[in-house]
Amino acid sequence: AGVAAADGMLRRTCCILDNPKHMVPTWPETGARLLVTRFLKSFIQTGCIILLEGGKIFTFQGTEKKCSLKVSLRVHNTQFYWKVATRADLGIADAFIHGDISFVNKNEGLLNLFMIYVANRDLKASVKRGWWTPLLDVLSAKYFIGHVSNRNTLTQARRNISRHYDLVINQ
């Protein structure tokens, strides 16, 4: 209520969460949340990313004025943090596909997230990489090798097609 009153005085819009779901993350998810939030705090130099998790709100806003975009993500499952911590951008995609996160602005949320990412990536291009980037490179390489080694033979492709499509021709 205090945040809503302050936002009203400053003539800013405020979205009150209706019955936020209380989430209790596991220890690995708590550690992953800490890693992800620290990374976002240091990575976001322009734009604003807001994570809405149950009753908690995490805001990551840069001081640069290059990008004025704002995106709000609603975290439905704390596995989101684990996926992002272990698989970086593939983890974000996986979390979105599996419904672990959603965008408050369903029309432009995903686009704004990409644009904020690109704007910050361009700003960080000249900055020295951190100690964790080799670890992320190894994890990304692991998933790439796993993907490449999962060869789809002609027999496997036919089996997949027959399982997913009705191949009976009605005349």
From TrEMBL:
<protein>
    <submittedName>
        <fullName>Uncharacterized protein</fullName>
    </submittedName>
</protein>
<dbReference type="InterPro" id="IPR026669">
    <property type="entry name" value="Arsenite_MeTrfase-like"/>
</dbReference>
